[in-house]
Structure formats: C-alpha cells, structure tokens
Amino acid sequence: MTTATATSTRIYNFSAGPAVLPEPVLKQAQEDIWNIQNSGVGVMEHSHRGKVFDAVMQETEANCRKLGNISDDYAVLFLQGGATMQFAMIPMNYSGQGRTVDFLHTGTWTKKAIGEAKLFGNTHLAFDGTDCQFDHVPASGEINYSDNPAYVHYCSNNTIAGTEYSSVPDAPAPLVVDTSSHMFSRPIDVDKHALIFAGAQKNLGPAGCTLVIIRKDFIEQANPDMPMMLNYKKQMEKGSMLNTPPTFPIYIIGEVFKWLLDLGGLDAVHKLNQEKAKFIYDAIDNIPFYSAVAQVESRSLMNITFRTPNEDLDKKFIAEALDQGFSGLKGHRSVGGLRASVYNAFPKAGCEALAAFMADFATKNG
C-alpha cells in the first residue's frame, strides 16, 4: 500500500498536536525563512517593529477577521503561554470578589482549567462528565448553572475523548470557549462568546502562539490590577506586542489563514472535514471489529477515537499502521486506545487510505 502523499515523501501524520500543517504553507515558509518579500532577510530575523513584520501582523489579523466574520467589537490577540496560560489568565481577570466560575466539564482540558480557576475563586460544575467517562458533551437538560456566575467556560472540541459540541450552549453569563483543537474547522458564532481562545499547534499553526478573540466590553470588566503581560487591555492597546511576540508562529498562522480562504472559507472547510471524517467513522461503524469511544451525537470531526477488541490488538494496529505510513494513531496516554486526528490540513486521501487499512487489519485479525 502506498500511503505517502503524491507531492512528497511525507507520511500521513495523525498526531493530535503539534499537528499536520498544509504543504503549500510549508513550501512558502521554506522560501520566506530565507528571504521574505524580497527584503533580503528571513521572516524569523525581522524586527517585530519593522515594516515587513508589521505587514505580516496586519494581514494575519485582517484574514482572521475575514475567516471568522469577526466584528470591530472584538480584539484579536496573538499571545504566548498556550491555551494553558488562558486557564489561569481568564480567572485571574474575571473571578475575583467572591464570584463563581461555571464549567461544563468534558475532559482533561476542562479539568486543567478548573484546577487553575480554583486558585483565584469559586468554581461550579454546571455539567460533570466524569461518570460517563466523557463520552458526550451535555445536552441542555444536563446543565445546571449556578446563580450569577462570573462567566461560563467550556471546551468545544475534546481531543482525548473525541467529542465536539455541534452548537453553542446557552449560558446565563459571558461565555468563554477553548477552541484549540478545532478552531476554524467550521463556521464559528463569535458573537455568542465573550472570549474565544485557541492554542495554535493543533489546527492553526505551530506551537508557540495562542489566538485570543475577546469582546472589547468584556475587556473593560477585567481586573485592572494585573501584570502587564496578563492584562488583556494592555495587550490590545499594544497590538499583542508588549514584548517581542512569537513572530514565526504568527507568520505561519497568517499563511494558514490565506490557505483556508483559498479553499473557500469556513463553509467549504467544514464540508471537506465532514467528508474526511466520514471515511473513518464509516469504517468504525460498519466493521464489528472496531468500537467508537464517543457517542454518535457528540463525535468530533477532528479527533476520532476508537478501539479494537483488546489492548494487544490496539498495539498491533499502531505498529502495523506505522509500517504502512500512518503515524500518530496511539490514543492519549491517559485513556489508551486509538485516535486519528484529522485537522484541516490533513489530506482527504489519508482518511480514505486509513479506512482501507482498517478494513484489511480487521479481516486479518478478526
């Protein structure tokens, strides 16, 4: 079986992150690392205060706004510290004075955010998926909010459990969402949220940058007595450049935004992602050898979690898949099993090829 892409000797990378990047972006980066915009200097060497990088930053923000239909009511920030920094930075800014933060707890990433929020104030689990082993995201009838929460935090796509919200949950307070693992994989209703954040390394670019989209009136409600690097207002006023920003990750994110626009925008990207995931979910559903982890109505298009009949066969599947040119299929260490992460940049042909391998593996080992 030939599984490498037609344009290179690269194998199919199903890693959950840092994850696959679009090949056209990587090829453009090869050129711009050496000499961007005929400046005679590579993108990583340019001053963040100079005209060349200023143009990169402005274009990246403009294309982000175009992709997400983001109005001027929101600031678009490119920060450091990953999504994990936002787990602490948000409650530091908004949970003081005895306020409670409500969480829809759907797995590891909300657990980490809850742990950070407890350092700064009260927390309440409006939904707790522990007993169901996080196999679904909550329906509206499963959610029980506290009285007057400071904000409500949820993770819209859960890489480890392989679950995803199909719609934005209703909330009685400003809504904060961690979209790290599926940002811009589909249209996003920005206006229903006070703050949206995403670590770049899963679906936007390389590690080292975090996209934050925050409503400006929500910024005004933040604790003003914050260190400058943790102060959303100061970050906004300085255009994400209170200090030297992660210039190369921002450049790559900007190139990814161009690539997504060239594909036709988020409606077209969402349709493609549905087609890609269907190859693998059809294999899971139609071959009795495999079992899905997530409930059907909560299945993620980005992170497809499944199992063979036992752990030994899981290990054999991973080993033989790697021999055939499929890497990164081992489930998260905390849960085991198998996981295929098929982010925006993952090619459709790779999903079709994995489905064929799954059928062959089941025939030989069933």
In round numbers, the mean pLDDT is: 95
In the CATH hierarchy, what is the architecture of the largest domain at level 2?
A: 3-Layer(aba) Sandwich
Structural domains: how many: 2
Total helices: the number is 10
Shape summary: globular
CATH class of the largest domain: Alpha Beta
Amount of helix: 25-40%
SSE ordering: EHHEHEHEEEEEEEHHHHEEHEEH
CATH topology of the largest domain: Aspartate Aminotransferase, domain 2
In what range is the share of β-strand residues? 15-25%
List unreliable stretches of 5+ residues.
1-7
Alpha-carbon distance between the two ends: 20 Å
Instruction: Indicate the radius of gyration in whole angstroms.
Output: 21 Å
- Biggest beta sheet summary: 7 strands, mixed
What is the β-strand count?
A: 14
Give the strand line-up of the largest sheet: 2-10-9-8-5-3-4
